[in-house]
Each structure stands twice: as C-alpha cells, then as structure tokens.
Design a protein that fits this description.
By secondary structure, this protein is of the alpha/beta class. It contains nine helices and six strands, in the order βααβββββααααααα. About 45% of the residues lie in helices and about 10% in strands. The strands form two sheets. A four-stranded mixed β-sheet has the order 1-2-6-5, covered by helices on one side.
C-alpha cells in the first residue's frame, strides 16, 4: 500500500501500556478457543468482564514517523473516514467517525473489560474500534496472511461494523435471537463486504493499492474463516457453530464489495445464499 503520505486521523486513542494482561482460566487452549470464538467480532460481551466504567485517558500522541505502526493504523482509519463520509453523503445520511483505540494486554470499553485474546472488536455502545497491534503481527506470522493490506482489511472490517451501527443494521439483526448464529454470520459477511467497498475507493479514487494488495486482503479474509480457525484450534469443523462464515464466504464477500464499491451489493441479509 502507498500509505506513508496519507492523511492521519485524529480519532486514534492510544492506550497501550495502560492495561494489565488478562489470562483466561484453563490455559492456552482456552485462550485459543476465545480467539476462535471472537475473531473479528463486533460485540465480545459473551466473555467480557463487566465492571465500573472509567473515563478514557488518551496517551500522548506519537510524532509522525516515530511510531510506524500507529501511523499506519491512523492513515487507514483516515481513509475509511473519507470513503464512508462520501458514501453517506450520497445516501443523504451523516457519517460520524468512530474512534479507534489501540491497547495492549487488556482494555476497558463500554462493552466491558476485554483481554487481547478477543482479537480486534467493535463496541456499538461507545462506537469505538479496539485493536491490539500484536494481532496485526500475528495475522502474518501465525495465520499466514502477511502484508499491509491484509492488516488494513482488519481495520476496515471493524469500521464496517460501525457503518452497520449507523445504518441500524446491528439493532435490526439482533432483534431476533431464534437464528442468532445465522444472523451473526450475515453481519460478519456484510462487514467483510463493506471492507471491500472501502478497498474499491482506496484503489480507484486515491490509488493507495499496489500490485498484490487485493490478494493480501483475500488471504486475510480467508485466514479468519470459521472453518479454518476451528480446524486449527480443535482439529475439526462444526458448521452449526459458525458465527463469522467460512473462509470461502469471507473472501468472496470481501471481493464482492471490492469489485463493485457499491453498498447495495453488500446486503447479506436478503441474500438467498451466502
């Protein structure tokens, strides 16, 4: 990605070093299962430890160039802001930028206390994306999806949940619990598609992408499919427990958004087949 000269977002809260590590009971196997259960989830409330809310305290912002990882996240976030602001304007809606919180060890959100094992997540209660930068490194080193656009996909996916929140999709899809897993899969695949919509505009409008970037994004989407994660963690696949979609589905919906750049093409809730 040609990101170095891009605009930096002012919506990054750096809380790294402010949290204490949370170790889940049951050892490393439990941590892996938590990671599988909540990879890219937008609401980690099932395993969060709720408690008194404390006001966020922002760490001093790093100067440009002093923290390349933070700079990268800030540029990608800024580009999603530019993209979704323009799209919402065309829909006669107002786009409200989310905050992105960088953390290490653990973090307090409006959804509760979360440890790094939950992976990146979006909390609709405070409209913030939470990201431990160690996850971006693990994406390449442990899950076989290296590259800067693979990491950008992670951020764009979580911002996709914020878009769903603003559009009312999260409230609507959570209103019925009878098919909660199916609804969850549809939410996650739509967020993948929205990430692709952002990629379309980043490429066509601002020419941020380089050769091979799309392949990096597709590899990242496939790396976090339920089937692949379950096979890695427990040696078998249980389709009835899927909450995010298969590797094939996630890559396909991401590519669908990337190919068209059209929000209307991301309606997973009306799709007859996923």
């Amino acid at each position: 990605m040609r990101w170095e000269s891009g605009r930096r977002s002012g919506n990054v809260e750096d809380r790294r070093g402010m949290g204490m590590p949370i170790v889940a009971g049951g050892g490393i196997g439990t941590v892996v299962l938590l990671l599988v259960a909540l990879f890219f989830g937008f609401d980690p409330g099932a395993i969060l430890q709720t408690g008194p809310q404390s006001p966020a305290v922002d760490a001093p912002a790093a100067s440009p160039g002093a923290d390349p990882a933070r700079d990268f996240v800030s540029v990608v976030l800024a580009d999603t802001e530019d993209t979704w602001r323009q799209i919402f304007t065309r829909m006669n809606r107002e786009y409200r930028d989310p905050k992105l919180v960088l953390f290490s060890g653990s973090v307090q959100s409006a959804c509760g206390m979360a440890g790094a094992a939950v992976g990146p997540f979006y909390c609709p209660q405070d409209a913030k994306v939470y990201l431990d930068l160690d996850f971006l490194h693990a994406l390449g080193s442990r899950f076989g999806a290296p590259g800067d656009f693979a990491q950008a996909y992670v951020i764009a996916h979580e911002v996709g949940h914020h878009v769903q929140n603003l559009l009312g999709v999260l409230r609507t899809s959570e209103s019925g619990r009878a098919n909660s897993n199916t609804q969850s899969v549809r939410r996650e695949l739509q967020a993948d598609c929205f990430a692709g919509v952002w990629g379309f505009h980043a490429d066509r409008t601002r020419h941020l992408l380089e050769s091979g970037d799309l392949e990096e994004g597709l590899a990242a989407a496939a790396a976090v499919g339920d089937d692949r994660l379950q096979k890695r963690a427990q040696g078998r696949v249980a389709p009835e427990s899927f909450t995010h979609g298969t590797s094939e589905q996630r890559a396909r919906w991401f590519k669908r958004g990337f190919t068209s750049g059209n929000v209307a093409d991301c309606d997973t809730f009306r799709a007859a087949a996923l």
